[in-house]
Amino acid sequence: MSKYMQLFQGTSFSSKSPTEIQVLRDHLYCINDDGMIERIVAPEDAEYASLLDAYQGTDKFQRLEAGQYFLPGFVDLHVHAPQWAQSGTALDIPLYDWLNTYTFPLESKFSDLEFARTVYDDVVSTLLANGTTTALYFATVHKEASLLLAQICASKGQRGLVGKVVMDDPEQNPEYYRDADTSTALADTEEFIIAVQELAKTTKQGVYPVVTPRFIPSCTDEGLRGLGELAAKYDTYVQSHCSESDWAHGYVKNRFHKNDAFALHDFGLLRDKSVMAHCNFLEDQDAELFADTGTAIAHCPISNAYFANSVIPVARFHAKNVEIGLGSDISGGFSPSLFDNIRQAVISSRMLEDGVNPSLPAEDRGVPDSRITIHQAFYLATAGGGDSLSLPIGRIQEGYAWDVQVIDTSIPSAKLPIFDEHEDVHDIFQKIMYLARPEHIREVWVQGDKVHSR
Ligand SMILES: [Zn+2]
């Protein structure tokens, strides 16, 4: 009897709700041929013993060791794959200067497919090693190199959603790095969409094309309108940046006399499959438009500390039913780890709530009710990301993909401070959230396939 492709036994953590953690102790996770969690069986369930009897000792069975736990794989909603090559550098200047001084020259080098392969191979492997099983990527303006990134995701087993970036406005973009013209930008995007949809048929976990205007300042009206039409025609994901910094927010207001959100909506770019990065400066009506259209926010807390001139009011937008996930925003954010971004999301929200200027009286210093908990930040990195993409990922739950990371709290070189074998698992969960590093991630699985181990 081997009805299931695989059977796992162990304790898992997953979000029950945005504020609560579900702990399944010593459960069995039954994975079917499609890599989906078909059944989860509790120890007190009658079937538990017979399933163990049937699978134990076969190569379809894996039991976690003491000190090991399953977490859902992370969903990174905002990664600039080419910028991995400059991660950790150039964080000392404002967004506009950062783009023109460092980022555009780097991205222009991805016309060279060999250079692109070197960087893209490494960034996909690095994200997998950091527990990121699904990533929403900006590539560059180059169609071939963007397709190469999708192919690398496909072959390494990561669920990659990849966008060929559109920057078609000759007034706003340097001559050495932009689309040749608007019609070429749209034709390249359409060819890219078709090629990735073909590639997807060869994968188990799925890869997806994403319509990707870099942000409004880099695109013409005609380009933005054409991209909205392509997203509708092929029913694709859409990603861009929205209301990130004072400069970006102000630019769109000057050009369209409305906020980013409404301008993007006018071009057909706010859809259920849309994810907009940052969104720090959304006003209430913008957030309501996001909720109405199903558009999600990619919250990038580390990057925001450098480039967004503000802390996003996550709690306020969540209360308005806007879908929110987490993004590393490599390389505006220096870290490829969503663990690091979970921590920063909590820290930033605490600073927003309390305020940061000690010369102000306490009651004027902060924004009340802004803090989020570590459980909420974990939700953003997992279930919130899955919901943002409308995919069955980010939860350890029946009907979801077996996208998991195996966390080992007891590796000798980086043992977590757990001294009592009966320590409350909720405390263990929090220690993992705050202290885990890539070396604690022993295995990563996507859609039932092991894609990383150490
Ligand atoms: Zn970005």
Task: Give an overview of the whole structure.
- By secondary structure, this protein is α/β, with parallel strands linked by helices.
- It folds into two domains: 6-71 and 400-453, Urease, subunit C, domain 1 (Roll); 74-389, TIM Barrel (Alpha-Beta Barrel).
- Helices cover 38% and strands 21% of the residues.
- The strands form three sheets. Strands 6, 7, 8, 9, 10, 11, 12, 13 and 14 form a nine-stranded parallel beta sheet that branches.
- β12 (274-278), α9 and β13 (296-299) form a beta-alpha-beta unit.
- α5 (182-200) packs parallel to α6 and α12 crosses α14.
- The mean pLDDT is 96.
- The structure holds zinc ion.
- Zinc ion (ZN) binds at residues 78, 80, 241, 277, 329, 332.
CATH topology description of the largest domain: TIM Barrel
Molecular shape: globular
Cα end-to-end separation: 31 Å
Q: Main β-sheet: number of strands, strand sense, barrel status?
A: 9 strands, parallel
- What integer value in Å does the Rg equal? 22 Å
The ligands bound in this entry are:
zinc ion
CATH class of the largest domain: Alpha Beta
Family: Belongs to the metallo-dependent hydrolases superfamily. ATZ/TRZ family.
EC number: 3.5.4.3
GO molecular function, one term: guanine deaminase activity
Pathway: Purine metabolism; guanine degradation; xanthine from guanine: step 1/1
